[in-house]
Here is the input.
Amino acid sequence: LVADGVAFNTLLLACSRYERVAEAEEVFAEMKSAGVEPTHVTASILVKMYGRAKMLDRAVEVSEQIKRESGRTPNVHVYTCLIRACVQNQQVRRSWELFNRMLCEGVQPDAITYGTVIHGCIYNNKFEVAMELVRHAHMLPQPKEAAPEHGEHSPLKLSQLRLRRPVPLQPEVLRALHTALRKKSQVALVAELEGAGLVGAPARLG
Here is the structure.
C-alpha cells in the first residue's frame, strides 16, 4: 500500500510527540521520495518539533523548504508555530521578523498569533512593542510617540497589512500584559490599556 499525506503526517506527529527528531526526518525524506507533497499540516508538525528541540534554525529552514517545493506561502498556523518556536528559544527579535514577513505576504494573524508575539514581548520587557500589537489587533490608533523604544524605531511593519476587522485578543493575554505593565510601573501604558476598555482596573482595597 502507498501511504498518503494523512498517513505520513500521522507518523510525523507520533515522532514529534515522542521527540524522535531523527525518525521524523526519515519519515519526511520518505514522504518526499514517495512523491507526496507536504502540506501546511506537515510544516506545522515539523516546526513545532524543531522548536521544542531547540533547533530554531532548522524549524525556519524546513518551513522555507516546504514553501519553495510546494509553491505555497505558509498559512497563519505555520507562521504561529514559527513565532512560538522563536519565543520558546528566547529569540524575540526573530519572532518580530517572522511576524513582519507574515504581514508582508498578506497572511492575517489571528488572536493566537498576536498573543504569542505579545508573550515574547512581555518576557523581554518590550512593552511598547506589545502595546503596538494590541493597538493593531483591536484597530486602535497608534500614538506617534509610541513607536520608538530606547531611541530605536519600531521593529514592526504593521502598516504592511490593514485588518478588515478587529481581532479581539484572548483575555488571558491582555491580563498578563496588564499585570506586567503594573509591575514595571508603566503608568501610561496601564492607563491606555484600561482606558480602551480591554482590561478592568484592579479593585482598590479599603
